[in-house]
Amino acid sequence: MISIFALCYNIPFNYLVGLPSIALSSFVVLVICAGLYYASRFRYKVAESILITNFVGTTLFIVNFFLNSGISGPTSQFFLLFLLLSIAISPAEQYKFWIPVNICVVLAVHAVEFFFPETVPFTYMNRESQFVDITSAYVVVALLAYFCTDYIRRSYEQEKNSAAEKNKAIVRKNQLITSQNDELKKLNDEKNKLMSIVAHDLRSPLASIQNFLELLSEYDLPAEQKLAIEKELLNSTKQTLVMLSKLLDWSKTQLQGVSAHKEPLDLNDLFATTLNFEKGIASRKGIKLEYLLDPTITIFADREMMQLIVRNLVGNAIKFTSEGGTIAVRSEIKDNNCIISIQDNGIGIPADKQEAIFSLNVQSTFGTKNEKGVGLGLLLCQEFIHAQNGELWFESTEESGTCFYISIPLHQEGVLLSDRE
Fold this sequence. Notes:
The chain contains twelve helices and seven strands. The chain is of the alpha+beta class. Among the domains are: about 1-125, no CATH class; about 260-420, Heat Shock Protein 90 (2-Layer Sandwich). The strands form two sheets. Strands 2-4-5-7-6 form a five-stranded mixed beta sheet. A two-stranded antiparallel ribbon has the order 1-3. Strand 4 (about 325-335) and strand 5 (about 335-345) form a beta hairpin. The longest helix has about 90 residues, at about 125-220. The protein is rod-shaped. Mean pLDDT is about 80; it is low at about 415-420.
C-alpha cells in the first residue's frame, strides 16, 4: 500500500519535471504493485507476492538509477527506502538474504557509474529540476520511512501485547486446571474415604447381624440366650441405622451444599426433647447426664442443625464415658453469642488424633462398651455450625475427659431476619 501511494505521487511528478521515461516505468510498477496487493490480500499468495515485490522493486531502482542521473539523482535514497519496505514486509528469516542483496546492488551500480560514467547520462534539464527532484525525493523518503517504521513498531507492539495476553490466558488456564485438579483430588480423596467408611464401618455390624440370625435359625437356643441375641441384634441394627443416617446427612451436604434456615430459638425448648432422649441412653449405660440451660436465652440458628449437632456431641460423650461417669451440658452468654458446652469425664481424645478430629481423615473408634461409630459426626457438626455463623472447638486431656464448645449468635430484638442472613 505504501508503494502504491508513493508511485501514484511519483508518476505525475516525474512527468512534470521532464522525466517521462521514469514516469512510464513507475506506471508499469504501479500496475504490478496493485496486482501483488490483490494476490496477497485476496488470493492469499503472500509468500509469492513478497518474493516478486522484492525482485521487481530492486529491478525498478536499478533501471531508475541509470535513467535518472545515477548518483546525481535521488535513486540512492529510494534504494534505502526500499530496504526499509523490504524489512517491513519480508519474514525475519529472509532478512539475511534481501539486506545483502540491496547493499550489493547499490555498491554495484555506484561502481558502474564510477568506472563507466558514460553509462549514466545526466537527465535533468537544468539545476532547478535536479534540486526539486532530490528535495522532493527526500521528503517522500522521510514520510514513507516514518510510515514503515510506525507500521513495524505497531506490529511489534501488537505481537507483544498478543503474546502477553496469550501468556496471561495460559497462566489463568493453568491456574484453573491446577484448581480443578486440586478440587478433583480432594473429591476423590473424600470419595475414597467415604467408601472406606462404608466398607469398614457398615460391614462389621451387618456381619454381626448375619451371625446372630444364623444362630437363631440353625440352633435351638435357650430362651435366655435368644433374648440376649435379640438385644444384640437390636443394638447392632440401631448402630447401623445411626451410621447410615450420618452417611446420608453428610452425602446430602456434599451434593446440595449446606444451607441454614435461621430463626429465633428458645434454647431450653430447642434441646429439651433431644437431651431427654439422650438422658435415657446415658442412664442405661450408668452415666449421669445433667443439663443446665438458661431458659431466658434465645439464639438465632437453624433448629434441625442445632439438634443434630447437640445430639452428635452428647452421643459421643456417652460413647466415650465409662459407667459411673458424668456429662454436663451448660450455657452462658459471652458478648453477642451463646456458648454451649458439653463436658464429660470420659477417656478423652488422644493427642495424635486431635488435629484430624474435624476431617475425613479421622479414624472411627470404639466406645467404652465397644460402641462403633462412623467418622463423619464431627465433620457434619463443624459444617453445620459454620453455616450458622458459629464456631465449634474442644479441649481434651487423655484419660481425663473432653469438653466441646459451641458458639452461636444470640437473637437480637429489633434486627430483621433478612439483615442477619
